[in-house]
Hints:
The chain is α/β, with parallel strands linked by helices. It is built from 11 helices and 15 strands.
Amino acid sequence: xxxxxxxxxxxxxxxxxxxxxxxxxxxxxxxxxxxxxxxxxxxxxxxxxxxxxxxxxxxxxxxxxxxxxxxxxxxxxxxxxxxxxxxxxxxxxxxxxxxxxxxxxxxxxxxxxxxxxxxxxxxxxxxxxxxxxxxxxxxxxxxxxxxxxxxxxxxxxxxxxxxxxxxxxxxxxxxxxxxxxxxxxxxxxxxxxxxxxxxxxxxxxxxxxxxxxxxxxxxxxxxxxxxxxxxxxxxxxxxxxxxxxxxxxxxxxxxxxxxxxxxxxxxxxxxxxxxxxxxxxxxxxxxxxxxxxxxxxxxxxxxxxxxxxxxxxxxxxxxxxxxxxxxxxxxxxxxxxxxxxxxxxxxxxxxxxxxxxxxxxxxxxxxxxxxxxxxxxxxxxxxxxxxxxxxxxxxxxxxxxxxxxxxxxxxxxxxxxxxxxxxxxxxxxxxxxxxxxxxxxx
Length: 442
Ligand code: LMR
């Protein structure tokens, strides 16, 4: 079914006051699009249910639905978002923060199905942060997107003030402060890795352009869709007006996996494991760093005195965890990936604990480790909790670590050559190392 054929919801337009929750009809938003943004693509279908912007500092706690008899919400409308409420009675939440806009691509997929409910319940931004969720899907997934939106409304999240669904990134990314780019095409049977890089690269080039055109100038972008490092590079290269520093490739899942394995081996609970870096690519060449990692504040090598296990078993277990999981589940990790996205976001919006750090795939320009510039490489970061981060300088290297880092760096440089046509780098030349694989390709 073509998305353009879908009927827009016809929720009642109600008188808006500063203390009322309201619904923006899709019809109204469509006419705004036509009037003010004529250069954009117009094929997207969008449903939007939202809180009156002037009322966003208050909660819909004192629920007194006022549904005008003449204009009962139609079934397509997102139930609670179509009603009006007296918000004035709610005194406790006057300190709520300004609404935050979060876009999620691949929003009808399994990862998003876990993540969206964490976001909407306040697990990432806290219990005083109202949120608008802008869900990006495809024509094929549009009905599923509506299902996701229905489940969100049925969850009665007080912090969830707006839900939009669309297949047009230019709509979904409008003014967003966060973009979580989860959707990507999986590698199909017989597809060359170069083909995967190209197909997904086209998607991320388009999304980069859309972010560049309409997102908040300080948007934070977390790329999850694989191959996430190079997808993030393509995205940032197509968004020149957004700081390259704001783009992340998700390697927090790998960090979490490494912490779990170290904890298991040491017989310690995993909250005692700190300073774990994943270096490089989210692929089987990634380097889980046990040289700088600590358990109970002690260097891992003092706690786990088995270098062979660290260099071989531990390293391979982390590198291949995604693939092993796919064999068990029959599909990619979803819940733990969603948890790690939430962790990655929390790491940017809360100060990093003293002496610790977290891993993220970030742009290498200006890095202090001598890693080639112009790629997205997972490195150790610290944040003051303002959404920004600094690379950690006080890390040590040995020959083993440097050799492994060089290998994953070479892989990312090869991936970059393969997508040169998508990043303004001229003609692409694909000479990927043969053993290059995503964790899930094992
Ligand atoms: C994972 O690490 O679990 C995934 O990236 C695996 C995959 O290729 O989907």
